[in-house]
Amino acid sequence: MPFIDKVAIVTGAGQGIGYEICKYLTIQGAQVLLNDLDPFLAEKAVTQINNETNGHCVPLPGDASDPDFIKKMVSSAVNRFGKLDISVANAGVTLFGDFFSYHPDSFFRVMQVNLGGVFFLAQAAANQMKLQPSGGSLLFTSSVTGHQAHKDLAAYSMSKAAIEMLAKNLVIELSQFRISVNTIAPGATLTQRTLDDPNYEDTWSKLTPMGRPANVSDIANAALFLVSEEARHITGQNLIVDGGWTCISPSPY
Question: Could you give the residue numbers annotated as active site?
Answer without folding.
Answer: 142-143, 156, 160
